[in-house]
Amino acid sequence: MNSLLYEPREGVEFSKRSEVPLLKVRYSVFQTALFCMIADWLKGKVGIGAPTEETVRGDVSEVNSAVNGDIQDKILDEESKCVYDEMVKIKVPGHLKVATSHRRWLRLTYELLLKIGVRFSDKMSDLVRRHDLSKYTHREVLGYAVMFGDGSIDWRQLEIEAEKIEWDNTLHNHYAGNPHHPEYFYPLLEDGKRDKSVPMLKLDPENGKDFVDESIIDMLAARGERVLAKDPEFNVKKWLDIEERYLFRYANEDKMYVKECLKKYEEMAEEFFSAEENVKRFDGYFDSRHVVFKPY
């Protein structure tokens, strides 16, 4: 496994398939087409929104070669070309753009929290670098493309069986390979619910706190990008006010820790942005949005 990605917990496995029902092809053909598509996307030959930072581009390229299968300069055969074209229609390049945008928001969120005074462990910069790189792999791209496309739509009500299979497959693999999701730690019960009897903080005493911290940054990045970026002003107080419905996925102890962190971040942000020069420093920080701290 690529060092930038995570292995599933003991007793959990990534789904293994020989065929892709949605594309009606062998899995190996899909992987070949995907490898070429990501390579083309990074070169600007298909889609938009590829990362411009060399380190980020390098990480995506490394994951693509290591996981999707490095075929170097092999010419796509007719079947692989057809799959490539079908993936364009399904909006896989759009998904790659969305994944890249979210990872950018996550990095900016992390850096902003550092600037207002939040202190994370020395591991966090590496966790931020590795965050959601699995979304560029064959295990996840199709399901995300089916569900969210190029980001212009929200959660879809999937009705086609092949699309449901892809989304279920993607969600399982994403949770299995990303410990910033509580679902990575909480075992799946026979009734389909998660066993949250033991919190992340205790299941992994060495790294659990770091992964919970990463999950908070993830929530803030998603909220900023999907909700508050549409506001005329980027209200930091509103940004940090994560709704309760997003916290149900945590075990009680983990949830209490998350709430305490958000409260602490709000207090630090209020003090930091009480200085006018700090408000001006972050003007346009998120996609030309104004970062302003003020009460509702």
Helix-strand blueprint:
Layout lengths: L18 E2 L4 E2 H16 L11 H16 L8 H12 L2 H24 L8 H7 L10 H8 L12 H16 L5 H4 L14 H4 L4 H19 L7 E2 H4 L12 H21 L3 H6 L1 E4 L2 E4 L4
Parallel strand pairs: 3-5
Antiparallel strand pairs: 1-2, 4-5
How much strand content do the residues show?
A: under 5%
Task: Assign the structural class, choosing from mainly alpha, mainly beta, alpha/beta, alpha+beta, or little secondary structure.
Answer: mainly alpha
Q: Radius of gyration from the CA trace?
A: 20 Å
Give the tally of structural domains. 2
The overall average pLDDT, rounded, is: 92
Secondary-structure element string = EEHHHHHHHHHHEHHHEE
Shape: globular
- Amino- and carboxy-terminal Cα gap: 47 Å
Total strands: the figure is 5
**Continuous helix count:** 13
Main pleated-sheet profile: 3 strands, mixed
Describe this structure in words.
With 296 residues, the chain is mostly helical. It has two domains: 151 residues, no CATH class; 104 residues, no CATH class. The chain has 13 helices and five strands. It has a three-stranded mixed beta sheet. Strand 1 and strand 2 form a beta hairpin.
List the defining traits of the structure above:
2 domains; two-stranded antiparallel sheet; 13 helices; mainly alpha; single chain; 296 residues; 53% helix; 5% strand
